[in-house]
Amino acid sequence: MMSQQILTKNITVYTKENCVYCVKAKSLLKGLGLKFxxxxxxxxxxxxxxxxxxxxxxxxxxxxxxxxxxLVGGYNQLIEYFNDKKLVNYKGDIIRxx
Length: 98
Fold this sequence. Notes:
Strand order of the largest sheet: 2-1-3-4
Helix content: 25-40%
Structural class: alpha+beta
Low-confidence stretches: none
Distance between the termini: 14 Å
Mean pLDDT: 91
Shape: elongated
Strand content: 15-25%
Largest sheet: 4 strands, mixed
């Protein structure tokens, strides 16, 4: 099953305070029953540069999501990632198996 393969993935979500899309990304992952590690810019890093080094790329927006150490991108890219796997529709709504 596709969802079982995804359940074994290592997922990291980089977030910041007062970020609507960070909340949406975490909610989507929880809705899919996926465990993830959250790293907050305000508390988990000594500087923005340290966070950028951890992400592996200079980014301008939050959240940023890594799956198995590969940067997927932000919330919209997360939707595309799961849409390709037929787990969400193009709006990010979870597709329940019939």
